[in-house]
Amino acid sequence: MEKNRAYTILEHIGWGKYNLFAFLHCGFAWGTFSFWFVSTAYVIQGATEEWDFNTFQAGIIGSFIPFGILFGSLSWGYIGDRYGRMYAFKPSAVIVSIGSLLLVFSPNFYLVAIALSLLGFGMAGELTLGGTVFCEFCPPSKRYYMTLLSLFISIGAIAVTLVALLVSLINTSKFYNWRIIVAIGVAIEICVMFFRFFMNETPAFLVSQNRQIEADRILNAISLKNTGKKIDKSDYSSSLNSDEIIIEKVDKKLIKSEESKPNKLFTPPLLKTTVVMGLVYMFAGYSYAGILYFMPEFLEEFSTSTGFAIILAQQCCGIPGVLLSAKLIETRLGRRFTILIFYSLSGLMILFLSFNTNFWFVLIISGAGYFFILIGLSAMFTIGPESFPTSIRSKALALMNVTTRIGGISSPIIIGYFLELSNGKFMGLLCLCVIYITAGVFALLLKETKGQQIG
How does the UniProt record describe the way this protein sits in the membrane (predicted)? Predict the structure, then answer.
């Protein structure tokens, strides 16, 4: 039996339309995150062209979104655990819409910086809460679907790359390509924001807060949607286990006492998990940001349309990677060894890009690289939520986003500096390779979560 009673009832109800509804909403949150994250490369390239920046200045632009995500993660994580998942998940889409709209009409570097920072602040909620919300709506036996949620990361990347390719081919207006790409993203984001407001709070969060009546109401709504009937009376109560508060009226002194305790994330038994997981996310975020932001620079030998076509092919290779990852994490490899093997292979493929500039070589090697990256990334995004209990999961994943963005902020600056040097391309790719392999090695220090109960 799961530690949080809500998961037991969700398992009893089984997977159905309601869970698919949650899967799509959380998937679109990750998809729009990926759309904006990848679009940063086109914003950097376009802003460099529009305002004649050098590579180092372009790297500074690339750090504003991670900077916004860094502070957004801290805010949304606190709000999500303190007030509810939807108090963070819904407003984050509004902030992204506002930030992206401001970016379209930014007339100079300073407003671009503000818009990208605001955009990143909202994106933090999309990534942090997307995985948390789906995990808490998902029956435990279907938790490996967390890996499939990463499909939307590839779909978002493919969407923005396809948009960029089409815009580069057909745009004859006076507007720069990057502004049109962002404008299309604004339209997509507003649609996602509208449908987000129909979502309910997760029953697992309500149970962890001892809001039993509200949890029962939502669990019944899920059962009605999935099975056409209410849950059985014997399964209706979402009572907590002995580790949770089990009465409706909780003594305020007890709540105050609980809140005054040191953060569980930084005390045993979660301390090691928090530190190691944070390092895995940080190293992976460093290399992922570097390869995404500067892929147009690494493909500078090709024409703009050819470079975008290569990037589109790369992103498409991520889809079979996600599907394979969903299978691999349930085998003897588990989550940890899947991350180790495929982050290591990702690093090697990235390094090989420095050996040859032949079109087919670049296409095959970079495609294989993205295939391996998405396998490792999907496994990482699965073990993350599974490693922390419901009561602090939002805060924990927010902290993981913070460490990811520390890597993401430093990567464009460091790689941008390398690219200014002679032989800088090799140095930059070697750096990304080593860091990816390091992320895989640290994953071995985590506790395997395949088949484990979570609170």
Answer: Multi-pass membrane protein
